[in-house]
Design brief:
heterodimer, A: alpha/beta, Rossmann fold, 5-stranded parallel sheet, 5 helices, 18% strand, B: alpha+beta, Beta-Lactamase, 5-stranded antiparallel sheet, 5-stranded mixed sheet, 9 helices, 12 strands, elongated, Sig_transdc_resp-reg_receiver (chain A), phosphoprotein (chain A), Response regulator (chain A)
């Protein structure tokens, strides 16, 4: 329930993405959706004010969310990982020191977990 | 010159034993002479000839490298060369070629042989065809990769199904119903989660599955897992998953995990007389005064599912909390 909060949602599966998008709208924040690394990076660049992010780890065409995660870290933007590929992506998951929610999970809980990280940052900006 | 212990020395009589042993062993063995130019093979036993397909006169006098071919790994070959230069023992797996051109994986063990004075006499090489072992290892790797791919896809599938339910729920204005359906889909997803990662065939370790199912509910270590390493068939897992979900949801709403109480749940699972027996015991939760007047949707679903599986669930509403025992037949239940 953070006004003006922008949440970046990255998932290569459209239905999961849509579900997360609805959940974000329920929380009255603005979802920015991406299905691959390029789109996600474009959102980060263009808006410049992504508050937090939900990143699917294994993406299409052999991509992982790693470049997006690194870019978010560089900008001090909090994110969580949302993955069903826990075994193969052990290395990636370990390299990224972020909270992981295993798929399948309730979309509103996933979005809430990301927003919980954004809240302190948003308060900091407001004050 | 190397120091050779007395137990390593050949006596004259052991020369005869050596010859007989070499002739009989199924291990392909050859000796090469490092004191001659290009270190030729000076002895090759019967097994060596059988493995490579060459006759003795085609082997003797040649360097071992005649077994190599276009696909032999050069890096492994240089390990062999280094070992020979340093008079070391080395074990490598090389792709070698028989006389008829067919390939085989050769587990080559190579080491120096010294005389009593420590002078280097021979290099000893033992060859073993490990093509089958390599193929099995490759197959296992492939199976593991497939299991992981499958695991990923199925978890994604559960997520997609859950997404469809949520989206439909919103469109039709029945979000609560959608979220109830989804909580069961998620419990089911978790029930299979632990098992998909292993390439296990047909059976599931109950322990990790029970822990995964209850993971989202088990706050602040308010659950005790007592079970042993029992396994159940794959087909029993959806029932167990959904029953545990109903019990956990009930405990969260009215029982040991209800808000304002500091109750505990202990979960036990055993294999007993062809059944899987799950025991769920709540203590210290919201006070209970007998069985609830109406059984909710969750309880109704649970009862019908258990009955369909020819199992039983007994619930006892004790003052300190619910005591439930689920029995699922898992052997000889297909009549």
């Amino acid at each position: 329930m953070i006004d003006g909060c922008r949440i970046l949602l990255l998932d290569d599966e459209p239905l999961i993405l849509m579900d997360l998008e609805f959940a974000a709208e329920d929380r009255e924040c603005r979802p920015l959706t991406a299905t691959n690394v390029r789109e996600a990076l474009a959102h980060i660049e263009a808006q410049g004010s992504v508050s937090c992010a939900v990143l699917d780890v294994t993406l299409r065409d052999g991509e992982t969310c790693m470049p997006v995660a690194r870019e978010l870290e560089r900008r001090d933007i909090p994110y969580i990982l949302h993955s069903g590929d826990l075994n193969r992506q052990e290395g990636t998951l370990a390299a990224l020191n972020a909270r992981l929610i295993a798929k399948p999970a309730c979309s509103s809980k996933v979005v809430d977990a990301a927003l919980a990280l954004a809240e302190p940052a948003a308060t900091r900006q407001a004050s | 010159m190397k120091d050779v212990g007395s137990e390593d020395r050949f006596s004259d009589t052991s020369g005869v034993l050596f010859e007989q042993a070499m002739a009989q062993t199924r291990m392909a063995v050859c000796l090469s002479d490092p004191n001659l130019p290009d270190q030729p093979i000076v002895f090759a036993n019967r097994a060596f000839r059988r493995l490579t397909g060459y006759d003795e006169d085609e082997i003797l006098g040649r360097n071992c490298r005649f077994l190599q071919g276009p696909k032999t790994d050069r890096a492994e070959v240089s390990r062999v060369r280094e070992a020979i230069e340093n008079e070391d023992v080395v074990v490598v797996e090389l792709l070698n070629y028989r006389k008829d051109g067919t390939e085989f994986w050769n587990a080559l063990h190579l080491g120096p042989i010294y005389d009593a004075q420590g002078k280097l006499l021979y290099f000893f090489g033992s060859q073993w065809d490990v093509s089958d072992v390599r193929a099995a290892r490759e197959e296992e790797r492939h199976a593991r990769a497939m299991a992981r791919e499958l695991s990923h896809r199925i978890k994604n599938m559960f997520s997609v199904i859950s997404g469809i339910v949520n989206v439909m729920g919103r469109v039709r204005g029945v979000e609560d119903t959608a979220s109830e359906i989804n909580s069961r889909i998620h419990a089911l997803g978790r029930a299979y989660e632990t098992t998909l990662d292993e390439a296990s065939v047909g059976v599931i370790d109950l322990g990790p599955a029970v822990k995964a199912i209850l993971e989202p509910y088990a706050v602040d270590e308010r659950v005790k897992f007592l079970g042993n390493g029992a396994q159940v068939p794959f087909s029993a897992m959806s029932l167990i998953g959904l029953v545990l979900h109903e019990l956990a949801a009930n405990a969260t709403r009215y029982g040991a995990w209800a808000e304002g109480y500091d109750g505990q749940v202990s979960v036990d699972w055993q294999r007993r007389d062809g059944n899987a027996v799950l025991t769920w015991i709540e203590t210290g939760g919201a006070p209970i005064s007998g069985a609830p007047a109406h059984s909710g949707t969750g309880a109704t679903i649970m009862n019908r599912m258990v009955a369909a599986a020819r199992g039983t669930i007994e619930r006892e509403w004790k003052p300190e909390g619910l005591h439930a025992v689920l029995t699922v037949p898992i052997e000889g239940g297909n009549t």
